[in-house]
Specification:
The chain has about 270 residues and is α/β, with parallel strands linked by helices. It has a single domain, classed as Ribonuclease Z/Hydroxyacylglutathione hydrolase-like (Metallo-beta-lactamase, Chain A, 4-Layer Sandwich). About 35% of the residues lie in helices and about 20% in strands. β12 and β13 form a beta hairpin. The longest helix has 24 residues. The termini are far apart.
């Protein structure tokens, strides 16, 4: 299932596996001036290729290696011969077979391994110049693309919402906050976030600052409880009312416990 929308000169392509006529989970890619940013999941690869057929389309960037961002790579390479670029730490991960949990297999499917080349510091299209900004935190090998003259920031998964309740075990909130601060500090008149969950946030600096404040406040609260002798299970109950239901749905990967343990390690 694919839905498209336009914002200024950017085409948003929202994709989801369809079960019973309904989308399972939306993920977004963006097409701007012949550059495609991310390729969705394997279940929607054929639909994405059909949508791109006949449109100006010359290069691809993967913001990182997760299966919902690289699932169309192989088919686009085979059909269009297009070059694909990714952060250096993501390149070897994209080239090998993915290891997925059952929920990932059901929602996004296995991406076929594909060949990518390391991103340089700048990606140029006919009309625009995109700076590649290193933004670890959600994962290693994560980058955002920023077109400074337009204030466009294609932010991948470094930001989804202002108040997250659960994260993956490998996510590092300290690195995430540092990456958000790096984006806020960019010399642009505006900062519009084009997120991989399909949100286009026009006041991106405000959204990032709100998210940083939430994470840092959460860290302070969790550390205060820990200092008073409370363990992680107690902190989860005190601050969130218990573990999030998504923990069970994601085979224990997306959990509030991961979030609490990460903010406890932060320096605030």
């Amino acid at each position: 299932m694919i839905e498209t929308a336009s914002f200024e000169e950017v085409t948003q392509i929202r994709m989801s596996r369809e079960i019973g006529g309904k989308p399972v989970y939306w993920v977004a890619a963006y097409l701007v001036d012949g550059l495609l940013i991310d390729t969705g999941c394997s279940f929607t690869a054929a639909e994405l290729a059909a949508f791109l057929d006949g449109r100006p389309f010359r290069q691809v960037v993967n913001t990182h290696f997760h299966e919902d961002h690289i699932g169309g790579n192989r088919l686009l390479q085979e059909k269009f011969g297009v070059g694909i670029f990714a952060p250096a730490d993501s390149v070897p991960r994209i080239a090998r077979e993915a290891k997925l949990f059952p929920y990932q297999e059901m929602v996004w499917g296995y991406p076929a391994p594909s060949e990518t080349r390391p991103l340089l510091a700048v990606i140029r299209t006919e009309r625009y110049t995109f700076d590649v900004i290193d933004t670890p935190g959600h994962s290693a090998g994560h980058a955002a693309l920023v077109e400074k003259s337009r204030g466009w920031c294609f932010s991948g998964d470094i930001f989804a919402r202002e108040k997250m309740k659960f994260i993956r075990p490998e996510e590092e909130m300290g690195e995430t906050v540092a990456s958000m601060k790096r984006l806020i500090a960019l010399p642009t008149d505006r900062l519009i976030l084009f997120t991989s969950v399909g949100r286009i946030v026009e006041d991106g600096r405000r959204a990032l600052q709100d998210c940083i404040q939430y994470i840092e406040d959460l860290s302070r609260q969790a550390k205060a409880l820990e200092k008073n002798g409370r363990g992680v299970p107690d902190i989860i109950r005190e601050l969130f009312g218990g573990e999030h239901a998504f923990a069970a749905l994601s085979n224990g990967q997306y959990t509030t416990e991961n979030l609490v343990r990460s903010v406890l390690k932060m320096e605030v």
